[in-house]
Amino acid sequence: MTSITKQQYNELRRRLLSDKERLKKQLDSRDETIRDASLRDSTGELSAADNHPGDVGTEVFERERDMAIEEALSEELDEINSALQRMDEGQYGICAICGREIPYERLEALPYTAYCVEDTPRKDISDDRPVEESVMTPPPSGAGINRQRADGKFDDADAWEAVEDYGTSTSPGMSVKPGQDDYKKDV
């Protein structure tokens, strides 16, 4: 057992139970039919063909954001359930890695933790950047070091000149230009 007082232990248990109920209510209140529905069903649209691609992109973003929030809530609920189980087994407040006591201050800040500060698993954020950044316009002065390295690459002001050689829908290879009805002559 740890040196946590009975009063502190009861307060932490009460907080865990309170947080568990709050998370369960949040997860239950989320509309499962929207989450499991197709994009067409969730938006109420018969077709996405007449929507601007930006509108569809916004809807997809909103759905993915909601799914990420739901996943985070579920993970936190799982951690709380694990902490309550450790309490029932008499292992609460003991680091799962080194076996040392977790200070009360840490448990007070993060009641469901199973690790002391030294043994907390790392959650590294990737330094990978989107490939598009390798051809972006020069960064403004004072921008971060990663953006400064891309200085001098493709300038979007010259974008038309770069793609013009590939032709357009009205290039000579096309027998019909927009607005003409030449295609009806072949019928």
TrEMBL record:
Residues 25-43 have a biased composition (Basic and acidic residues). Residues 90-118 form the Zinc finger DksA/TraR C4-type domain. A zinc finger (dksA C4-type) spans 95-119. The keyword Metal-binding applies. Gene3D superfamilies: DksA, coiled-coil domain. Pfam families: zf-dskA_traR (PF01258). Residues 25-57, 124-151, 165-187 are annotated as: Disordered. It comes from the Bacteria. The keyword Zinc-finger applies. Signal peptide: none annotated. One of its GO terms (molecular function) is zinc ion binding. This is Conjugal transfer protein TraR. It comes from Paenibacillus solani.
